[in-house]
Amino acid sequence: MSRYLTLDDVDVDGLRVLVRSDLNVPLDEGHVGDDFRIRSALPTLERLVGEGASVTVCSHLGRPQGADPALSMAPIAARMDELTELAVRFNTAGDITVIENTRFLAGETSNDPTAARRIANGFDLFVQDAFGSVHRAHASTVGVAEIVRSVAGPLLDSELNGLGRLLTDTDHPYTVVLGGAKVSDKLGVIENLLPKVDRMLIGGGMCFTFLAAQGREVGESLVEESMIETVTKLADDDKIVLPSDVVVGDRFAAGSKYQVKPVTEVPKGWLGLDIGPDTADEFAGLIVESASVFWNGPMGVFEWEPYRSGTETIARAMGECRGFTAVGGGDSAAALRLLGLEDTVSHLSTGGGAGLELLEGKVLPGVAVLERWVQ
Ligand code: ADP
Ligand code: MG
Questions:
Q1: Global pTM?
Q2: Residue 311 banded pLDDT, cuts 50, 70, 90
Q3: Nearest to residue 1, comparing CAs of 369, 368, 370, 373?
Q4: Atom of ligand 1 nearest to the CA of 274
Q5: For residue 11, what are the domain limits?
Q6: Which residues surround ligand 2, an ion (CB under 5 A)?
Q7: Is pLDDT at 1 greater than 70 in this prediction?
Q8: Does 11 have pLDDT greater than 90?
Q9: Residues 43, 113: one domain?
Q10: Which of 44, 114, 268, 374 is buried most deeply by CB count within 10 Å?
């Protein structure tokens, strides 16, 4: 694990502080959609202002190729100003100054030293608080932290501690629950965590590649042919638990006909869209009795009501577990929120790609670079 300083280690009074936050929110015709990330970023900024720092915040927004007015940070600053008592201003001095989209800057994504110097110019301290961006070696994540004294912000620190508990010194029994659409997205996580866990429960679309690898008939279910060989070796591991029953639909649609079937009896032409009730109960029992649980990926197409029950049972079991419970992945977090259960888990990760890379055992460049400022 990387070492780094946090805000508890520095006196920021009178310092000009640049914060890298994750303010990459969905925009709908120039208006901020879900402002969850803005609200999450604010406590760090408010704390810094309260401690006497002059605060500037930057983030990327979308994937512009150079400057693009449609992806300006101006509406983000306006929404942030509504959400806090402090004065938030775009590109002019406020209590909090929001500067323009880091990806407008040539050299941001290639981590060009000139771009990094431009970002760093005029600041005494850099606070990296954008967990969702630290897996990328960009000028605003790595380059700037090579120039200005840098620390991890509270959001980043909490993600590294929360997800870190799944990698080292994990309390046992340790259960990992994986679902979602594709095995290929999660293969690195499966391979890195399998030796550490007591059992790995597999649901979602990815279970059908495992079942197909065992020679089962899975009808029209989602199967990644290219992954079958790799998965065959994994599926032999006794720690891997696959569904015993599934909810199948007659087509991939919200209003499809559906029925519960044992995995051995998926009808021709039908496809598996959720784990079945027996499987959900078995998984829930294993989750509840665990000391540590990590869950990533919905158990079915939870967006459609008939295929939500497996995900809901898992989500409720996470809440009932008295051990350490962590949830990662955008859709899994969305499922928890849909069910109003987001406050029932110990750690809800927001990091997407960065979270997966951390759990794959990869070094996150935006975190590793912070180590140089540790005396
Ligand atoms: P996360 O964002 O939590 O990491 P993923 O992006 O990997 O999760 O997967 C989420 C998607 O997987 C959801 O949109 C869900 O509809 C889909 N999914 C889950 N089960 C199935 C299935 N059996 N067949 C097809 N898609 C599925
Ligand atoms: Mg997703």
A1: 0.92
A2: very high
A3: 368
A4: 23
A5: 7-153+364-373
A6: 330-331
A7: no
A8: yes
A9: yes
A10: 44
